[in-house]
Amino acid sequence: MPRNKKSPEQKIAELQQRAAAIDAELKREKARLREAERKRDTRRKIIVGGLVLQHADLDPAFHAQLWGLIEQHVTRDADRETLGLDPLPHSGGDPDRGHG
Q: In terms of pTM, does the model score above 0.85?
């Protein structure tokens, strides 16, 4: 019984299919890793933010310093609104100030 030998073209096509499947799996795993890292970073920010806010409630000097930093460095209108701050005057064209 003779074996059906694959032509070089068939071997190449099969290898390309396997490579495409591996590439797709690799992309899925990288996306899962990015998502896990994003969630971990978000959780870290929540924990640290909670600690900072709690400390600000206990220490008036720290509270004043924290809100001074927030007032100075939070520039996006949506972020300022979330924090109960007035919008900054717009100098025109600054994309980080909530235009868009």
A: no
